Amino acid sequence: MVETGEPELEGKGDERSGGRRSYRTLLLDGLRIEAPAVVAVLSGPAAERDASAAEGLGADLVEVRLDLVPGDPIGVIRRVREATQLPIIATNRIAEEGGAFRGGEGERIQILAEASAWADLVDVELLAGGRDRLMEAVGRPLIISYHDFGGMPSLEGTRSILAEIFDAGADIAKVALTPPTLKDCLGLLQLVHETERPLSLMGMGDLGKHLRAVAPVYGSVLTYGHIGAATAPGQIPVKALRELLDALLAEGR
Ligand SMILES: O=C1C[C@@](O)(C(=O)O)C[C@@H](O)[C@@H]1O
């Protein structure tokens, strides 16, 4: 686990980074993220080509879904590193949380650890058996994630999951949930607004997808969009997501 030590710098709603509005600056082991930030998810055979296009489409970071690229995942992330200057998140998603990796946990963690040499942040699931082993092996800022593709825990249950994620040593907590009602969406926005530590919250599904553009207004630090095929229900194309954020983020808050 990386000892960041660096304070987060609380920006103001009117701060701009390259013409974009930033609410807060995250300093993670020398990596500077002006939040809220758009992450372009790279998957499939066009991952390297999409990496080249990501910044022009409005992405601030890219995520390489090592479980969703053909061939050698290490070769792919190396080429993505050559294709873009944007910070890279390495993710090798377990099947239980919507991923396509089908090997053993030891192999999955090994690939992720090796790929981290070309990444700026690493994503690992809260419930992954190899989570702590990976965290010991990787000297990168960590996103610890939790996904529910069929619904969501209660709000108290979600608060407990966030506490577990931060207690486990996350630099950024990430939860992607499928809220069944608008009341659940309101509850999640309240949760984002009250959480001071860096949290990325996304809604999945038809009723939750608007949270991808709205939760950043309430403080969510990362929101994920796609360039090629969507990698989650309700995911929004990067260009449209960027335009939504630029339209919705407020001068002051
Ligand atoms: O965890 C996340 C969020 C995500 O599942 C989404 O809902 O956009 C997409 C994944 O690629 C990423 O790793």
TrEMBL record:
Reactions the enzyme catalyzes? 3-dehydroquinate = 3-dehydroshikimate + H2O
Q: Where is this region: Disordered?
A: 1-20
The catalytic residues are 147, 174
Keywords of this protein's UniProt record, alphabetized?
Amino-acid biosynthesis, Aromatic amino acid biosynthesis, Lyase, Schiff base
User: Which EC numbers characterise this protein's activity in its record?
Assistant: 4.2.1.10
- Amino-acid biosynthesis in keyword set: yes
Report the pathway entry.
Metabolic intermediate biosynthesis; chorismate biosynthesis; chorismate from D-erythrose 4-phosphate and phosphoenolpyruvate: step 3/7
Q: What functional role does this protein have? A: Involved in the third step of the chorismate pathway, which leads to the biosynthesis of aromatic amino acids. Catalyzes the cis-dehydration of 3-dehydroquinate (DHQ) and introduces the first double bond of the aromatic ring to yield 3-dehydroshikimate.
* Protein name according to UniProt: 3-dehydroquinate dehydratase
User: Which gene carries the instructions for this protein?
Assistant: aroD
